[in-house]
From TrEMBL:
Transmembrane segments: none
One Pfam family of this chain: TusA
Protein family per UniProt: Belongs to the sulfur carrier protein TusA family.
Lineage of the organism: Bacteria, Bacillati, Bacillota, Bacilli, Bacillales
Protein name: Sulfurtransferase TusA family protein
UPF0033 domain residues: 5-74
InterPro entries in UniProt: TusA-like, TusA-like_sf
Length: 75
């Protein structure tokens, strides 16, 4: 998977990871991938819901040392 852009949203609380993700996605073309790093525990639910409502695709998510990572393909 080729990542086009990485968004560092660590240390930000809701709703800022979603706000920053939306801005970053607007800079991408269809089918390009955004990688997001956040420490907000609510991000999994928030980003999953946002991806569905925006017509994007969550390719993968994982947690590593308290950092939640998401890979989203722009729809």
């Amino acid at each position: 998977m080729e990542v086009k852009k990485v968004l560092d949203a660590k240390g930000l609380a809701c709703p800022m990871p979603i706000v920053q993700t939306k801005r970053a996605m607007n800079e991408l073309e269809k089918d390009e991938v955004l990688e997001i790093h956040t420490t907000d525990k609510g991000s999994k639910n928030d980003l999953t819901a946002w991806v569905k409502s925006g017509g994007h695709q969550l390719l993968k998510d994982e947690e590593e040392n308290g950092v939640f990572k998401f890979w989203i393909k722009r729809g």
